[in-house]
Design a protein that fits this description.
The protein is mainly alpha-helical. It has one domain. The protein contains 17 helices and no strands.
Length: 381
């Protein structure tokens, strides 16, 4: 009688990200809402360090740390871009990179051009120094606005200062696809790729901590690509985990709930001081990645909130909201200086909502249709 043979380990089939995940729109909605409310102070004061928007300290703390929203955006972007690139590679169709960059251009550039034109006219109206306006505009067009602030801290247009985050994302989009697909094309094992990404994340965190200890300014560390790319790479790492590793849904639910509580704790207790620059950004990114992974797997109890329709809609229009709110808030802070703070904030919300809706329906949506019609991911032959 022959000895019993052990069963071969089951091969895990790579899991593609579905075409649309409403929970991710919900996460995007929460992220942009965090940034949006954190900038209310610009409506009532031109002082960048002003935070007494309300008489209540706890409420001001709630309104304050907008960087959490940006961090969530970074992780989500890294997750989505990596998932889509791997999905396209799996389908083995020609012109993958061309379609990828055309999709990015049609999604991002039309609304960006619109706000840059609007900012130019605001600068003319307010007689802002045009050399600074042009410098900021060109850096924004080239997605180098974060480096413009580093190189010219006193000669950057404040109304466009928030575009630093888009610069980091686009610089990542230029470099990461070639690296990722190169590793996959060389048939590097998935676990090795994950290990390399994890090591790179650790190196970036160590690099930022070292610069902090050397006295580099918090602003430089906050907006430099080399000190913030770890959050995008964390998103990429969780995309690889989603694709190649199966995690028990109960474990994911518990992990996501703990991660969410960790983010809340950081928001209220650790949002100021050295923690953020001494590993805090990486910790936040990992916690956000856990929540995103559980949300995509529909394994988190919080999906009930994330799929709430108003939050999903807010996530869909988040790009336009992010682009326009800062310019409007800054202009209001300089010219609309009468009346109660609450009244001015309410007017600001109404104006931004109207402009965001106009941007979505008349600028973004037509180009999104073109993107989906001509450059969508093709089905495998």
């Amino acid at each position: 009688m022959s000895a019993p043979q052990s069963a071969a380990p089951a091969t895990i089939v790579p899991l593609d990200l579905p075409g649309h995940v409403p929970a991710l729109d919900g996460i995007r909605g929460i992220a942009v809402l965090q940034v949006f409310v954190a900038h209310f102070h610009w409506i009532v004061s031109t002082d960048p360090y002003f935070n007494a928007v309300t008489p209540w300290h706890w409420l001001n703390k709630t309104l304050e740390p907008g960087f959490l929203g940006v961090d969530i955006f970074f992780v989500l972007s890294g997750f989505l871009i990596t998932s889509l690139l791997l999905k396209d590679w799996q389908r083995n169709q020609p012109g993958m990179f061309r379609r990828f960059y055309m999709r990015r251009a049609l999604r991002l550039l039309p609304a960006l051009y619109a706000i840059l034109i609007a900012s130019f006219f605001v600068a003319l109206w307010e007689k802002f120094p045009m050399d600074i306006q042009w410098r900021t505009t060109w850096h924004a067009l080239l997605y180098l606005n974060n480096w413009n602030v580093v190189w010219n801290p006193n000669a950057a247009q404040n109304d466009l200062g928030h575009l630093w985050s888009l610069g980091i994302e686009e610089q990542f989009y230029i470099i990461w696809p070639a690296i990722l697909i190169g590793l996959v094309a060389l048939k590097i094992p998935n676990k090795v790729i994950m290990g390399l990404v994890a090591i790179t994340i650790s190196v970036v965190a160590w690099h930022r901590d070292t610069l902090w200890d050397q006295g580099v300014s918090w602003l430089d560390l906050y907006i430099r690509t080399d000190t913030r790319v770890d959050s995008l790479l964390v998103g990429a790492l969780f995309a690889l985990i989603y694709r190649h590793i199966r995690i028990n849904r109960k474990i994911l639910n518990y992990a996501a709930s703990i991660a969410f509580l960790g983010i809340v704790y950081i928001k209220y207790e650790l949002s100021t001081g050295s923690f953020i620059y001494e590993g805090g950004f990486t910790v936040i990114a990992i916690l956000a990645g856990i929540v995103i992974l559980a949300a995509v797997e529909s394994a988190w109890i919080g999906n009930v909130v994330l799929t709430w329709k108003p939050l999903v809609i807010l996530g869909k229009v988040s790009y336009g909201l992010y682009l326009w709110h800062m310019l409007i808030f800054q202009v209001m802070g300089r010219h609309f200086t009468w009346g109660p703070k609450s009244f001015r904030i309410m007017i600001g919300i109404m104006i931004v909502s109207a402009v965001t809706a106009a941007s979505w329906f008349f600028i973004e949506k037509p180009f999104l249709r073109l993107k989906d019609r001509r450059y969508s991911s093709v089905e495998p032959s």
